[in-house]
Amino acid sequence: MIKQQIHYSTPDRTDGKNMWQLVQKTTLDKNSVYKYIMFSSYFTDTCVVAKSDQELIGFITGFIPPDKPDTVFVWQIGVDPDFSGKGVGSSLLEQLITQVKDKDILFLEATITPSNQASRALFKKFAAKHDAQCQIESFLVSELFPDLDLYEEEELFRIGPLK
């Protein structure tokens, strides 16, 4: 059996549509294709793609919040279901931290729903690996959403300081 090699890098504009197509195969929020093209064009330093045989199998879209220049915020992390459980998510996070190393980033943030046990475990594992605190607090409460039946509140995970 030949093990597929996975390559991690910053995205380019052509990766946007492939990110969107990958999301369609998952339970992730379905943002517009425009979002992925814009992130692949303007936020390349804080986005990561994972490819196997030139095919996109995972990604992170993220940004540095203007009022928190020491923080990188992960908006979305997606992994092709065929590659789930193979360490792609962890490697994407590691690549993201490598990419922003020269930007004096001390914290990683993300919002995660209480029901998303896989993401919660991924970010807690990342914090433990980096010997960093993982603070979890209420953030996007259900009252902020237009339809309480469609949206679950999201908690803010703040990991750091990263060394």
Short description:
This protein has four helices and seven strands; from the N terminus they run βααβββαβαββ. It is α+β, with helices and mostly antiparallel strands and 163 residues long.
Structure description:
This protein is an alpha+beta fold and 163 residues long. It has two domains: 1-64 and 75-105, Gcn5-related N-acetyltransferase (GNAT) (Aminopeptidase); 106-163, Gcn5-related N-acetyltransferase (GNAT) (Aminopeptidase, 3-Layer(aba) Sandwich). The protein has four helices and seven strands; from the N terminus they run E-H-H-E-E-E-H-E-H-E-E. The protein has helices at residues 15-23, 33-42, 88-99, 117-129; strands at residues 6-9, 48-52, 55-63, 71-79, 107-112, 133-140, 154-160. A seven-stranded mixed β-sheet has the order 1-2-3-4-5-7-6, sandwiched between helices. Strand 2 and strand 3 form a beta hairpin. Helix 1 (15-23) crosses helix 2 (33-42). The longest helix has 13 residues, at 117-129. The radius of gyration is 15 Å and the shape is globular. The termini are far apart. The model has no long low-confidence stretch (mean pLDDT 94).
